[in-house]
Design goal:
alpha/beta; 7-stranded mixed sheet; 7 strands; Glycerol-3-phosphate (1)-acyltransferase
């Protein structure tokens, strides 16, 4: 039954992507705020389908620490869900992502129109410079830059390597760094199609102040994200399956 529900949800996920991408494609000709609205509608549709089909609820915590204006956010990355759910609670996110994703149908169209920060990872030095320049422009527009320091999805319990890109942004943009912990991989794994019922929590943590030394900053980012994400995993492992959280989608 879990496999069947998971397959149905995959149809919902990618079918809704194609539906929203095609039906609302004329909005790509309008100001980028319209394309951002389409992404947000799709994200809400995905979360609705996750709850209805596979029993995954999504809860947002620490909203008092959620940035409203220009900001840098470093997020824990375990699942595709990490790239979808933040659209529901962030006003104007600008994701740092692989340039190859821009060429994908539907997703790529809207990522391009909303000016996501696309980088070519193999051009290390050049990519870093262009990333900082693009992120500075996004900050000037009042957007929230979301970067996943691990660079790729990790499984619960892994000890991932945090890439230095987030430190470069933190140093050159000279802003506090907000942190977003999650247990998403517990119920929506980064690999495979099986999804398990449960509550995925995205929790905004108190931001790290601007001006920290690079080494100290990187240690704090990893320590806090890994510790708080592990805490969420333990908490949800102990929670009754029927427990309803206070702020779910």
């Amino acid at each position: 039954m879990t496999r069947l529900r998971s397959l149905l949800f995959m149809l919902w996920l990618y079918g809704s992507m194609a539906f929203f991408g095609l039906v609302f494609s004329p909005l790509l000709l309008l100001p980028s705020v319209c394309a951002m609205a389409v992404i947000r509608w799709w994200a809400k549709c995905v979360l609705f389908g996750a709850r209805l089909i596979v029993g995954i609820r999504v809860e947002f915590r620490g909203l008092e620490h959620r940035p409203d204006g220009p900001a840098l956010i470093a997020g824990k990355h375990m699942s595709m869900l990490d790239t979808i759910a933040p659209f529901v609670v962030l006003k104007a996110p600008a994701y740092v992502l692989k340039k190859s994703l821009i060429y994908l149908p539907f997703f790529g169209w809207y990522a391009w129109r909303t000016r996501m920060v696309a980088i070519k990872r193999e051009d290390a030095a050049k990519a870093l410079k262009s990333m900082v320049t693009a992120c500075r422009a996004s900050l000037a527009e009042g957007r929230q830059i979301l970067i996943f320091p691990e660079g790729t999805r990790s499984d619960p319990g892994d000890d991932p390597v945090y890439k230095p890109g987030v430190a470069a942004l933190y140093r050159d943009l000279d802003v506090p760094c907000h942190l977003l912990a999650t247990n998403s991989g517990q119920f929506w794994p980064g690999h495979g199609i099986d999804r398990k019922p449960g509550t995925v929590v995205f929790e905004f943590l108190p931001p790290l102040p601007a001006g920290m030394k690079r080494a100290e900053f990187m240690i704090e980012v990893k320590t806090r994200l890994e510790r708080e994400s592990a805490r969420l995993i333990v908490e949800q492992a102990k929670a009754p399956a029927s427990t309803a959280r206070s702020r779910t989608v």
